[in-house]
From TrEMBL:
Residues 63-125 are annotated as: Disordered. It comes from Glycomyces algeriensis. Residues 65-125 have a biased composition (Low complexity). Residues 125-216 form the CBM2 domain. GO terms for molecular function: hydrolase activity, hydrolyzing O-glycosyl compounds; polysaccharide binding. The keyword Oxidoreductase does not apply. The keyword Membrane applies. This is CBM2 domain-containing protein. SMART domains: CBD_II. Keywords: Membrane, Transmembrane, Transmembrane helix. Pfam families: CBM_2 (PF00553). Signal peptide: none annotated. The chain crosses the membrane at residues 22-42.
Length: 220
């Protein structure tokens, strides 16, 4: 009778069922190993200095003692893999504080621009006209340009486009066309409070009244 029981135990059907359970168990272990490898890639893929967990170490936790059933093995695999944090949660936690620290610190270019704007002082000038000589149809005019700003100016330009006035001679200034005249190379730079003297002669109509001042533009 014992020999008959032994023959039944070694039957092909019994061996087939055992092989099927072993294949199922190997499939579950392979799936868990793939999940662990994917999790390592997502979490530690951007950190070249971190030593990744080897596949062998991950598989050691899934070792199944001899004689355990396939259902018990699946339960132990699920229990061992449950504490793993999802990649989406870990990525969100790692990047949640980044925008606040980046936005709080001003850039060096903004600090340099604001500092240059505070240090820069405006430059300005005025130009006054004084009639020195007057004839029936012409005049000689004295021009004085004064630096009135808080910073030195590198050059100056004045508007002498006056109605019924035709300049035919001038000195200590250059003709810039369209009635504008500018400083020479040697009298353009004026510190605050300094002045430059120029003049012109012009033909005029009868009873023309020249303005006491004209527009002056400071060139830094």
């Amino acid at each position: 009778m014992d020999e008959a029981d032994g023959a039944l135990d070694d039957s092909p059907g019994r061996r087939g069922r055992l092989h099927g359970r072993l294949l199922q168990l190997l499939g579950v272990v392979s799936a868990v190993a793939a999940v662990i490898a994917l999790w390592q890639f997502v979490v530690f893929g951007d950190d070249p200095d971190r030593d990744p967990v080897s596949m062998a170490e991950g598989l050691e936790t899934l070792s199944i003692p001899e004689g355990s059933s396939s259902s018990g093995a699946v339960a132990s695999v699920s229990a061992s893999s449950s504490p793993i944090e999802s990649p989406s949660e870990s990525s969100a936690a790692a990047t949640s504080d980044a925008p606040t620290s980046a936005s709080a610190a001003p850039s060096s270019s903004e600090e340099a621009t604001s500092g240059a704007a505070e240090e820069a002082a405006p430059a300005s000038c005025t130009a006054s006209l004084t009639v020195e000589k007057e004839w029936d149809d012409s005049v000689e005019v004295h021009v004085e340009v004064v630096s009135t700003g808080d910073a030195a100016l590198g050059a100056w330009e004045i508007d002498l486009d006056l109605r019924d006035v035709d300049i035919y001679n001038h000195w200590n200034m250059r003709d810039l066309d369209h009635g504008w005249y500018g400083s020479e190379d040697w009298n353009g730079r004026l510190d605050p409070g300094e002045n430059a003297v120029a003049g012109f002669q012009a033909e005029t109509d009868d009873r023309v009244e020249l303005p006491g001042s004209v527009s002056c533009t400071a060139v830094v």
